Amino acid sequence: MLAFFKPMFYYFGFGINIKSEIEFPELVETERSDSSLMIRIGTIPEISGGISFSSSDFTYVIQNNEFLFTVNNVAKYYAKNGNEIIVEILNPEVDGRSIRLYILATVMAAILLQKNKLPFHASAIIRDNNLLLISGESGAGKSTLLASLINNGHTVFCDDILVLSRSLSNSKIIATASYPMIKLWEDSIEKLNNAQFSNRSFRIRHDLNKYGFFFHNTFDKRSYPIEKIIILKKGNQTQFVLNKIKDTEAFIAVSKQIYRPFLIQSIENKTLSFKLISDLISNVDVLEITRPVDSKPKDLLEFIESNLRLRSSIVK
Hints:
Blueprint: E1 9-13, E2 16-20, E3 28-29, E4 37-41, E5 51-54, E6 58-63, E7 66-71, E8 75-80, E9 84-89, H1 96-114, E10 118-121, E11 123-127, E12 130-136, H2 142-151, E13 155-158, E14 161-166, E15 173-177, E16 181-185, H3 186-192, E17 210-214, E18 224-235, E19 241-245, H4 247-255, H5 267-283, E20 285-292, H6 297-307
């Protein structure tokens, strides 16, 4: 009798060793090893009770340490106990990138919370073994600023999603990178006008003018303490404005950067997020930078480098 085996892939991402039946070019490949998360294709179990929400495109149910997420005409996703993801494909014609996109976003955010880690919406560079986080509302220019910093010689750590947790050695809040890809919209690529970000071969999704740029070879798996957080905003003024914010104002601003906050429903997760954010703002500088709506990437870069005294490795 012949035995048939599904191919298995081994990755590192979000600070987790992952074993998967689905291939993820976005993640970092590793040798076969003990994994704390299994991703497989199968039939999704039903969840009764819990907190649920439905829209024209999505449905989700949260029940204790289970999360059921349905993307209409794409797939169902089930995350449990921080160590298992089951994917049930609803449309055999849907492209693999669309299926993976939701795993690398909402579903992984649920897994992290089940592991008592906090998903945080930010990009980051490494400087002197500390992190400078760049956060802010959608469209504020986080990824474009990150790309500008990289082009000017700064070391990329992560784009879009970070993982916040507490160091076991000194109880400091530390951040871990999710995976090595910078995502840029078409208009950002045109504004940057840089050869490093010109290859549009990896489209994030077939219906989006957004592209991925990988940095697997320089991806840093280590966790680092956080030095500063920039909250980037857009405004109608003609000048760049920098304000240092503290206490309640900082807590509110930083809490808004939690990734997929609707997933935080349990007392345990609410306590986790409150304590992590409270300790974070007590030990790092939180800077709110408002840029003019029509500002150019190079002008924002110059403002930040001069005001934060960032040292570039590029000789000017």
